[in-house]
């Protein structure tokens, strides 16, 4: 028997269900832990245990048992009893105890990870109530459940999310959105998100003002004042802190000093009230999806840059420029604007979204045509968009800036610019003609005897000539694939069976990795293999050209639809009893594995027999075909399956045909022979037509049966079909929902958490429907398995249909994968869609992708035109694109976006054994002749430069690279590294590098200088910088990391002292990299090659000198400071060399360590070299020592030797830096006098090629010899970096050893010679030098 327990605590109630066995288990635990009476629980009954009397008796006894336990533990129930009664779900003591125990175990890890922590309103309510009670913080005696763990965690938490709910919680009567809670326990919050909570119940928000930077409030507030000024409910008259007021005030409210981002979208705001005065530092303000009617009070936000007012009820913008002074991004989509008056003075505006408004007149564009900074403008889904040549007429309003404006997320083409120039010329001619006409009228008026002014004829408006159909853009990819446009000739069209009226041009896909390109028409290669529709169906290239414009195909489809309609009409009219007529189920005889449906509405129409009936006797005339769309269909009904579909729109019918597996189609007859009817319904029986994924997935729901058909095809066809069907089904065109990219970006935003959303990132550049498969499963026998989890399939999935399509979105920084659950998609998009994001920096085309193409197709039967192997992070997946050209469009856009990234990117190299096994035609990409056959001297020089110094640690990828010589090195560069087509490798340098953003991590890098960019191939330590986890390498390829800096982004090069290192500086902090060559010859050689490459680039015009006032021109002429020596290259790149001032600073730093009674002679620096100090550790007796190299700067003067820690990356300060570096440039770590040097050890005993300087440990009067001495360290570690005194048993206690490794051979020899000369001058004898084994 199951017993229902009703628990009441105050006004809160909840119910629990338990069996008697649960009571018995609880009693056993309490007996063992709390020593309660064993006879307290009613005993078990073996006979008659299910009798009604026994059950009622036991029910009362168990109730008495629980009440007795609660009386026994009046203050705090034991943990087992609390869990039994669900106190940890609904009761404040149990909730806080459970949360405290969780934070006791995981709190520190959560704080270190910096992740967003989720707290329910019920938990916050429990904490708030617990703090108000006069009870101990650990009432149950368990230290892990102490309330202090929660308070300690909340004081340090930085990121918080509070998701509320509407309705009751679980089995209780608790309504979370009505529970009050206090946020004053949070002392360090930087970001907070609150949703579905009543604003009146949120207490303590003002306490977050000192630290909060980002606040998101959704479905909570009716006014901004409720959130920003909750004190307004207590004080009638209030004023902002620091603002003088003439009226009496009852309260002075401090401002939100740190708040820069405020998101109050999806609320019920009626106006922008005066509470915005409290957020003067806000830069990003989102007020979308509210009920705003006016733009007001925003003049108080002086720092506002980005404003989102989309999907409100704005009707006018008058005077908006007085409220938005420095705005750069303004989103006004989804409002009711008919005029743009008020935007003409927003001179700083860069991005403007006006989509989905009521703008009908082109003259309104004149209000924004003079904005000097406007670059992006969106006007989609406005009435003016239906005007012929709408784009060119809009662009013409911008006059000379037409080429700089991106309209509707589409760059302006050269053809459009030509048309704009024509319109401008016509307009100028018209104005000149009007001026001449006016002057003639004046002359005629002056000389007219009557003095009457003749009537002027009305001027007719001039329209721009219709533009020709746009040519498809050619796509190029750094991976070696190229797309070219081939015109369709008569012979070609006759051979393929396509009329010239249906196809303008064809895209020929040529895989450049092969010597024999594919056929230009694509008939032989792309149509030879028809994919199995039961595994992974795609739309073949041969079917795309067959549209409704093909008269032969239209006639055949008309006959098929008409024949099916007449047969079904006879069956419907013969059944007067009202039963529905449906085709046989799949697999039945005569059905052809298809699905026919004619609904009850069609029978009623037949019985009515009216003249306007949709199913009236069709007569001898054929059915008119208005549109044909080829798509991938997913049918959800009694069973779920997908099919390659041909959708035919006629006047009375919607017909869907399934394309069966067949041979290569040679013409229309072969295509029609493979068609099989799947669905035939009149438009009146279509219940809903929805674009579930904007412009990519269209769903049709049939009313009688509830069958839903999802169609995936190209966006243009789906948009036209959606508009056509919506007009027929609902009687009105669909409501505008914004542009394609805007709607897709909004969908992505809905599926992301607010803290994951970045406005600059989620501008959708491209969307591609595809099957995403694990490559390991593609080559296995049987149908390939989809990456979509099995729980997203319904139970009625047909056997063999094992892959569901997904959608790949390309944004500037991520590859977003949208997985769809078609079985539940109609119920709501949020619950049936799952979005995964992969950074573009970690996505790349598989290195062996070039091996598939010409020749016999792979065993899995896919065509290269649809299949693309990708490495997403560490996952190897295969993307099978549904549409034939999507792969090459994806590659082109992917290469463009990835080359524009300013991040450390993942690269992959094929193993040497695979490179050697590839055919010669596949190993080398498609290059120009000079790159295919490089000069032998260049090859020899690059091979000599590709020698890694012995002191640099090599990862497997860099070890592989260091082994490439000659042509192998060039082939490696062009196939795996180069991002710009036909760039030439000019120089190779191995060095350690430091990134400005990660100054403490020194990486080994192979620097490749090409004619277009600088490439830094990094070791595996770069995985920590790029946010990727290093894993075991794949057997076929090696993963590495690369950072690319385009030469056009190079601003300056800072050369270090004595050419020991150099630093390249670009436009952002990520483009500042210090290269520690520790070799003056290597630095000098690299700078020579860099200048030569820069000289070959196109010369940029000299910028016009900026206007300067009197003080800037003459105020700095006599500063008395010598500036760094700057060489401005012809490419405008500055080469900055050290000045005498910098050398003087270094001299002062080392000289200040000498006392005032030091030497009278001048203090000079004889040698400056970047070296390593070798630290040796002995793990145990009998084991060889372990050596660690610590970077140091060694300075030799006439009397002393210094070791310093130097900041190579932060100085000189970059232009974008806003504060000085945290560390000094030079930090002295140790110093010794040359006269205290006893001997020098050379050889391989300590470290290969290292020098061991042995000093007598005699404190001198003029040096801080024990600057780094730690008297509290362990024996053998005292003395600082040198491992000085007792690090080895054989070292005398009175000696200090410096083990120094100088990488450069010349610098090493110079150090020894200078040291010997100075020692001889000071000690009057030769320096003892000992050779070790």
TrEMBL record:
What are the PX domain coordinates in residue numbering? Answer: 1-91
Q: Which terms in the GO cellular component ontology are assigned?
A: cytoplasm
Domain of life, per the record? Eukaryota
Q: Which UniProt keywords apply?
A: Cytoplasm, Leucine-rich repeat, Repeat
Which Gene Ontology molecular-function terms are recorded?
Answer: phosphatidylinositol binding
- Transmembrane annotation, as ranges: none
One Pfam annotation reads: PX
Q: What is its main location?
A: cytoplasm
Q: Where in the cell is it found?
A: Cytoplasm
Which InterPro entries has this protein been placed in? Leu-rich_rpt (IPR001611), LRR_dom_sf (IPR032675), PH_NISCH_C (IPR057714), PH_PLEKHM2 (IPR057288), PX_dom (IPR001683), PX_dom_sf (IPR036871)
Q: Which SMART domains match?
A: LRR_SD22, PX
Q: Does the keyword Isomerase apply?
A: no
Q: What is this protein called?
A: Nischarin
Gene symbol of the encoding locus: NISCH
């Amino acid at each position: 028997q199951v017993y229902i327990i009703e628990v009441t605590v105050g006004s809160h109630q909840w119910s629990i269900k338990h069996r008697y066995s649960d009571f018995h288990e609880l009693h056993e635990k309490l007996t063992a832990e709390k020593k309660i009476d064993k006879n307290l629980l009613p005993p078990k009954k073996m006979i008659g245990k299910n009798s009604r009397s026994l059950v009622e008796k036991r029910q009362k006894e168990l109730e008495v048992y629980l009440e007795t336990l609660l009386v026994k533990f009046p203050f705090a129930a034991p943990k087992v009893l609390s869990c039994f009664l669900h106190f940890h779900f609904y009761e404040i003591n149990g909730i806080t105890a459970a949360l405290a125990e969780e934070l006791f175990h995981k709190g520190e890890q959560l704080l270190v990870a910096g992740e967003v922590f989720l707290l329910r309103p019920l938990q916050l309510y429990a904490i708030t109530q617990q703090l108000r009670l006069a009870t101990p913080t650990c009432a149950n005696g368990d230290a892990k459940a102490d309330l202090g763990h929660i308070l300690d965690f909340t004081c340090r938490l930085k990121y918080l999310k509070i998701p509320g709910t509407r309705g009751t919680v679980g089995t209780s009567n608790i309504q979370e959105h009505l529970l009050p809670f206090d946020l004053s326990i949070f002392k360090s919050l930087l970001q907070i998100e609150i949703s579905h909570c009543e604003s009146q119940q949120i207490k303590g928000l003002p306490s977050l003002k000192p630290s909060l930077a980002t606040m998101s409030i959704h479905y909570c507030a009716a006014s901004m004042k409720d959130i920003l000024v909750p004190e307004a409910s207590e004080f009638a008259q209030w004023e902002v802190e620091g603002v003088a007021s003439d009226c009496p005030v009852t309260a002075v409210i401090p401002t939100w000093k740190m708040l820069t981002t405020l998101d109050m979208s999806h609320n019920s705001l009626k106006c922008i009230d005066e509470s915005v005065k409290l957020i003067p530092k806000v830069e990003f303000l989102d007020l979308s999806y509210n009920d705003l009617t006016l733009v007001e009070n925003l003049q108080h936000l002086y720092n506002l840059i980005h404003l989102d007012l989309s999907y409100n009820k704005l009707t006018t913008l008058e005077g908006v420029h007085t409220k938005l002074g420095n705005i750069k991004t303004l989103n006004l989509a989804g409002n009711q604007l008919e005029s743009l008056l008020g935007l003409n003075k927003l001179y700083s505006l860069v991005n403007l979204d006006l989509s989905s408004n009521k703008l009908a007149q082109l003259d309104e564009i004149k209000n924004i045509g003079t904005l000097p900074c406007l670059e992006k403008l969106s006007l989609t889904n406005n009435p003016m968009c239906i005007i012929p040549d709408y784009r060119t007429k809009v662009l013409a309003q911008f006059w000379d800036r037409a080429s700089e404006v991106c309209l509707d997320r589409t760059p302006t083409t050269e053809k459009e610019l030509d048309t704009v120039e024509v319109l401008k010329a016509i307009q100028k001619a018209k104005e000149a003609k009007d001026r001449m006409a006016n002057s003639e009228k004046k002359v005629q008026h002056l000389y007219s005897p009557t003095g009457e002014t003749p009537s002027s004829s009305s001027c007719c408006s001039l329209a721009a000539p219709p533009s020709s159909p746009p040519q498809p853009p050619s796509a190029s990819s750094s991976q070696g694939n190229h797309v070219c446009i081939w015109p369709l000739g008569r012979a070609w069209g006759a051979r393929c069976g396509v009329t010239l009226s249906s196809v303008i041009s064809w895209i020929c896909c040529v895989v450049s990795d092969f010597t024999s390109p594919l056929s230009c028409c694509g008939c032989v290669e792309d149509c030879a293999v028809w994919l199995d529709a039961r595994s992974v169906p795609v739309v073949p290239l041969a079917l795309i050209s067959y549209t409704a414009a093909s008269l032969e195909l239209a006639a055949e489809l008309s006959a098929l639809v008409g024949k099916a309609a007449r047969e079904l009409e006879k069956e419907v009219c013969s059944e007067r009893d009202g039963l529905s007529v449906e085709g046989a189920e799949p697999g039945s005889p005569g059905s052809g594995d298809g699905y026919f449906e004619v609904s009850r509405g069609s029978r009623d129409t037949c019985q009515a027999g009216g003249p306007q009936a949709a199913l009236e006797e069709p007569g001898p005339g054929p059915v008119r075909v208005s549109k044909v769309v080829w798509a991938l269909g997913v049918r959800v009904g009694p069973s779920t399956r997908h099919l390659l579909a041909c959708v035919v729109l006629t006047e009375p019918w919607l017909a869907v045909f399934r394309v069966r597996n067949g041979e290569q189609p040679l013409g229309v007859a072969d295509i029609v022979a493979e068609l099989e009817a799947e669905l035939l319904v009149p438009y009146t029986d279509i219940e809903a037509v929805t674009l579930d994924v904007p412009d990519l997935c269209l769903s049709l729901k049939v009313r009688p049966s509830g069958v839903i058909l999802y169609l995936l095809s190209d966006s243009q066809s789906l948009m036209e079909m959606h508009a056509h069907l919506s007009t027929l089904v609902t009687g009105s065109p669909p409501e505008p929902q914004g542009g394609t990219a805007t709607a897709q970006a909004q969908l992505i935003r809905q599926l992301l958490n607010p803290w994951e959303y970045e406005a600059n990132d989620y501008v959708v550049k491209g969307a591609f429907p595809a099957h995403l498969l694990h490559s390991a499963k593609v080559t296995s026998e049987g149908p390939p398995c989809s990456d979509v989890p099995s729980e997203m399939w319904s139970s009625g999935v047909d056997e063999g249909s094992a892959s569901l399509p997904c959608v790949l979105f390309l944004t500037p920084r991520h590859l977003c994968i949208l997985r769809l659950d078609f079985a539940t998609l109609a119920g709501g998009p949020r619950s049936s869609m799952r979005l995964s994001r992969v950074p573009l920096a970690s996505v790349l085309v598989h290195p062996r992708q070039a091996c598939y193409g010409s020749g016999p197709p792979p065993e899995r039967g896919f065509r290269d035109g649809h299949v693309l192997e990708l490495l997403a992070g560490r996952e190897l997946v295969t993307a099978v694109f549904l549409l034939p050209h999507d792969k090459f469009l994806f590659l082109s856009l992917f290469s463009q976006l990835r080359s524009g990234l300013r991040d450390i990117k993942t690269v992959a190299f094929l193993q040497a054994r695979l490179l050697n096994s590839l055919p010669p035609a596949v190993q080398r990409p498609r290059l120009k002749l000079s790159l295919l056959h490089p000069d032998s001297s260049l090859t020899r020089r690059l091979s000599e430069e590709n020698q890694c110094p012995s002191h640099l640690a090599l990862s497997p990828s860099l070890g592989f690279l260091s082994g490439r010589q000659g042509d192998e090195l060039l082939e490696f560069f062009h196939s795996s590294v180069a991002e710009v087509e036909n760039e030439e490798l000019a120089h190779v340098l191995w060095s350690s590098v430091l990134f400005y953003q990660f100054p403490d991590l020194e990486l080994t890098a192979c620097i490749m200088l090409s004619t277009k960019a600088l490439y830094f191939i990094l070791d595996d330590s770069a995985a920590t910088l790029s946010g990727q986890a290093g894993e075991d390498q794949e057997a076929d390829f090696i993963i590495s990391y690369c950072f690319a800096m385009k030469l056009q982004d190079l601003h300056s090069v800072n050369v270090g002292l004595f050419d020991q290192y150099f630093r390249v500086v670009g436009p952002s902090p990520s483009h500042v990299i210090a290269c520690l060559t520790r070799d003056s010859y290597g630095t000098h050689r690299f700078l020579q090659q860099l200048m030569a490459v820069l000289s070959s680039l196109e010369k940029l015009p000299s910028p016009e000198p900026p206007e300067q006032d009197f003080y800037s021109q003459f105020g700095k002429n006599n500063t008395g400071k010598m500036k760094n020596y700057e060489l401005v290259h012809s490419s405008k790149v500055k080469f900055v060399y050290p000045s005498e001032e910098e050398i003087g600073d270094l001299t002062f730093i080392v000289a200040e360590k000498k006392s005032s009674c030091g030497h009278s002679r001048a203090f000079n620096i004889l040698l400056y070299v970047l070296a390593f100090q070798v630290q040796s550790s002995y793990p145990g007796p009998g084991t060889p020592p372990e050596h660690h190299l610590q970077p140091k700067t060694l300075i030799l003067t006439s009397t002393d030797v210094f070791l310093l820690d130097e900041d190579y990356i932060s100085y000189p300060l970059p232009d974008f830096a806003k504060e000085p570096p945290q560390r000094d440039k030079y930090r002295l770590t140790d110093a010794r006098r040359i006269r205290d040097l006893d001997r020098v050890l050379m050889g391989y005993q300590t470290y290969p090629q290292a020098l061991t300087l042995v000093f007598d440990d005699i404190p001198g009067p003029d040096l801080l010899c024990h600057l780094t001495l730690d008297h509290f360290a362990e024996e053998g570690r005292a003395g600082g970096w040198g491992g000085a005194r007792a690090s080895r048993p054989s070292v005398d206690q009175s000696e200090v050893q410096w083990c120094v490794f100088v990488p450069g051979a010349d610098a090493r020899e110079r150090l020894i010679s200078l040291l010997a000369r100075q020692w001889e001058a000071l000690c009057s004898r030769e320096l003892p030098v000992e050779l070790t084994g």
